[in-house]
Amino acid sequence: MDAGLDREWRRRALAFYKDCLPFLGDMARSGLPLALFALIIVGSASYAGLLERIPADFPAAALGTLLLTPALYWNPMRTWLQPADVVFLLPREAAMKGYLRRSWLHTLPGGLVLAAAVLLLYWPIRARVPADELTNWTPELLPALAAVLALKALAAAAAWRERQIAWSASRTALKLLRLAITVWLLYVWLEEHAWTAAFVSAPAALLWWAASRLPKRIALPWERLIEEERRTEGRYIRFFGWFTEVPSLQPSVRSRPWLSWIASRVPLRKRSTYTYLYSLSIARTELGGMLLRMTLLGMLCCYWLGESGWLDGWAAAACALLFLLIAGLQSAALTGWHRHVVWRHVYPLPESGRLRSAAAVDRGALTVVAALLWLAAGVPLLAAGLVAAPAAAALLAAVYVLLRPRRLLKRQQREDEED
């Protein structure tokens, strides 16, 4: 590989991941790790219960094919190419093979890990299905894992060859052929003997390779790789925008009439100006979307734990309080909004009123979140005759919501003094 291109590849990759670090820190402070931890606990408990209810005639191979197909078919490739590279790197196209090989090898390990993780998570379901009555054959994990990893590596190489196809119709047809072959081979490897599956896999791979030789190919599809890189970076930015403010992402404002009507209930008087403003802010901006997504996820987890009655209901109560704390971490950003707007100097309002209004809107939003989380966890527990856990959760949630405005005001005043 050309030394200059190698340095350029390293520089671009390092710059991208360096730009992502601040967003990862903001995501960690937003409570995402706690939400993932709660989701893992809830998912593990639900998965264990699901395994106990799997019938003997369950179509495990079909389910495994359905789960593994996206992991094998999707093969992104980070090249870090930009539109200006069509001018500056095009003269060095002959030396770009090493650059692209490095990009392919950089992306492949993540795909292999994803495919292996999906197989390992699915395998307890496949292992619960009895052995085939005719052949008395039971699938084994290691041959299936080796086959899935090999198919993933072949799919990644095939995806690169598809990018080289000149015409979109031929490229689409080749992708559909690869999708069909992937589905077929996955089902065979999960249902048949390893030797039978290997015997079927070789002709299928040769069929796709022969089909890929028919259409015209481009050695290095610059525009396609640049467009793919642009879409990939856009997905990263939108993902980070779910949890924190991204400067390069245009602020998302949505009307949300089913939620914005709350602001119309605020009295139209001078002391309620900030209350009206913050109510619209939390209803129409991405902060409201983050709270909504976190609440729905928390309600689902709380209901699962409440329905299972795990730990006599205390697990569901703890889950409700955990998601309430996460929602509180996210909504705390509200008090820092509208500190530097210009109209405050045109139509002056007391600063203390702004902070009190922000704290009041924050408390109202968290009251709704706490009520929804408690209903999702408490109703199944009360129906099962468990009273202590939902009562304790309601008491602690009420204490948290009532004491929160004072803490927010003190923290924001301290930050304002430091500024």
**In total, how many beta strands?**
0
How many whole angstroms does the radius of gyration measure? 27 Å
Mean pLDDT: 80
Total number of helical segments?
16
In the predicted model, the low-confidence regions spanning at least 5 consecutive residues are none
Structural class: mainly alpha
H/E element sequence:
HHHHHHHHHHHHHHHH
- Proportion of residues in extended strands: under 5%
In which range does the helix fraction lie? over 70%
Q: How can the largest sheet be summarized?
A: none
Terminal Cα span: 50 Å
Envelope shape: flat
Describe this structure in words.
This protein is mostly helical. The chain contains 16 helices and no strands. The longest helix is centred in the last third of the chain and has 33 residues, at 351-383.
Keywords:
mainly alpha, 16 helices, flat
Describe the structure concisely for a colleague.
By secondary structure, the chain is mostly helical. Helix content is 75%, strand content 0%.
How is the secondary structure organized here?
Blueprint: H1 3-29, H2 32-52, H3 60-73, H4 85-88, H5 97-128, H6 141-163, H7 168-191, H8 194-212, H9 222-241, H10 257-264, H11 273-284, H12 286-308, H13 314-331, H14 343-346, H15 351-383, H16 388-418
Helix pairs in contact: 2-12, 2-13, 3-5, 3-7, 5-6, 6-7, 7-8, 10-11, 11-12, 11-15, 12-13, 12-15, 13-15, 13-16, 15-16
